[in-house]
Amino acid sequence: MGRRLGLLKRWALALRSEVIAVFFAARDPAAPLLPRLLALFIAAYALSPIDLIPDFIPVLGLLDELILLPLGLWLVLRWMPAAVMQRARARAAALLEKPRSWLAAAAIVLLWLLLLAALLAWLGLWPWR
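That's the DUF1232 domain-containing protein sequence above. Prediction below.
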């Protein structure tokens, strides 16, 4: 079971890296138009919280992540020129190597919560008076 979990983690990290690389490839001016548009759609869909098929629908809700997303990535990787993908993968690897600051992430979340509280107070919807 532990070996399978490790394999799934490596696959998820590789998929994440490829999605970021596809995003960078979509922004490369040397990429042809059709693969660029497909790459942009796939990257936006993969990074978006909105799904084509909602996840709460049993079995069908996971089909987009298990079938549609890998199929779209495969098409992009097949149609995109190798030089463009090589540059995009290098940019994705450089981005993923940067350190992450949990303190900065917490500060941003706190800022959004304060803005939400201010909006609720301004609208008169604040629950505690």
